[in-house]
TrEMBL record:
<keyword id="KW-0963">Cytoplasm</keyword>
<feature type="binding site">
    <location>
        <begin position="70"/>
        <end position="74"/>
    </location>
    <ligand>
        <name>GTP</name>
    </ligand>
</feature>
<dbReference type="InterPro" id="IPR015946">
    <property type="entry name" value="KH_dom-like_a/b"/>
</dbReference>
<keyword id="KW-0690">Ribosome biogenesis</keyword>
<dbReference type="InterPro" id="IPR006073">
    <property type="entry name" value="GTP-bd"/>
</dbReference>
<keyword id="KW-1003">Cell membrane</keyword>
<dbReference type="InterPro" id="IPR030388">
    <property type="entry name" value="G_ERA_dom"/>
</dbReference>
<dbReference type="InterPro" id="IPR004044">
    <property type="entry name" value="KH_dom_type_2"/>
</dbReference>
<keyword id="KW-0699">rRNA-binding</keyword>
<feature type="domain" description="Era-type G">
    <location>
        <begin position="15"/>
        <end position="182"/>
    </location>
</feature>
<comment type="function">
    <text>An essential GTPase that binds both GDP and GTP, with rapid nucleotide exchange. Plays a role in 16S rRNA processing and 30S ribosomal subunit biogenesis and possibly also in cell cycle regulation and energy metabolism.</text>
</comment>
<keyword id="KW-0694">RNA-binding</keyword>
<feature type="region of interest" description="G1">
    <location>
        <begin position="23"/>
        <end position="30"/>
    </location>
</feature>
<feature type="binding site">
    <location>
        <begin position="132"/>
        <end position="135"/>
    </location>
    <ligand>
        <name>GTP</name>
    </ligand>
</feature>
<comment type="subunit">
    <text>Monomer.</text>
</comment>
<feature type="domain" description="KH type-2">
    <location>
        <begin position="213"/>
        <end position="290"/>
    </location>
</feature>
<keyword id="KW-0342">GTP-binding</keyword>
Amino acid sequence: MTDPTTGQGTSGPTRCGYVALIGAPNAGKSTLINALVGAKVSIVSRKVQTTRSLVRGIVLDGPAQIVVIDTPGIFAPKRRLDRAMVTSAWGGAGDADVVALLVDARKGVDEEVEAILAVLKGMGRRKVLILNKIDAVERPRLLDLAADLNARLPFDETFMISALGGDGVDRVRTRLAAMMPEGPWLFPEDEVSDVPLRMLAAEITREKLFERLHDELPYQSTVETDQWKTMKDGSARIEQTIFVTRESQRKIVLGKGGQTIRAIGEAARKEIAEAADTKVHLFLFVKVREDWIDDPARYREMGLEFPKE
């Protein structure tokens, strides 16, 4: 068994466990999990509530394997999809060995963080606090924020990081590894996620969709991979459908003369090819499905449980 960070063999008993990464929307959970894993396993967007299902990234540190669960942002749910996402997030936290609360240091303790703290108090799990985006906050304010949060709920450890810049991420990885229980690894050492490639491809396209149309497209849009066919030359022919709820949204996604959908497809194709390690031929289709947000099949496709009214 080899430590991927040093290329040298590891010694001592192996460790393996689950860490649930929770927080308010846009705290930086997806950016952090990608930094911990060292590969893209979760989509990153400045549009809130883009992570919808539980994404498990597999992190190695010496003899330890850490399965980090990137949960949807926890917020006050208003719609059926919101409720499914929040239920998924708390379900992931309840099953973890360690719960890591990620807080945007610029925002500090707002109503969303207070609501999360109230639930965490009743959870019998080891808890760590991670203050993110510290490069945008003066140190005295960071120390005050850490003290305030620990006074509200004592954490086993507190970390200060910049997930985007990488500052402090190595220490988080090392300390989480030490917290994992002894036991065999659950995944092969070259695996970075348990997310099926078809689902990751759909998530990559959804990320590019939001990047391109952040201010024009509601987050009630989804992408599904309909076909993944391996060609004779080893390349992949992939067909995906972008579901929107209105004809006006379909026109926005297509763009004048199809320019927007082509740009989205090209950006997605490059990242999917990198993830799949093969040449990719990507074909995108846009369909209007007004009631997709109330369709149980769409929730199953996203890995969510369909909530009843």
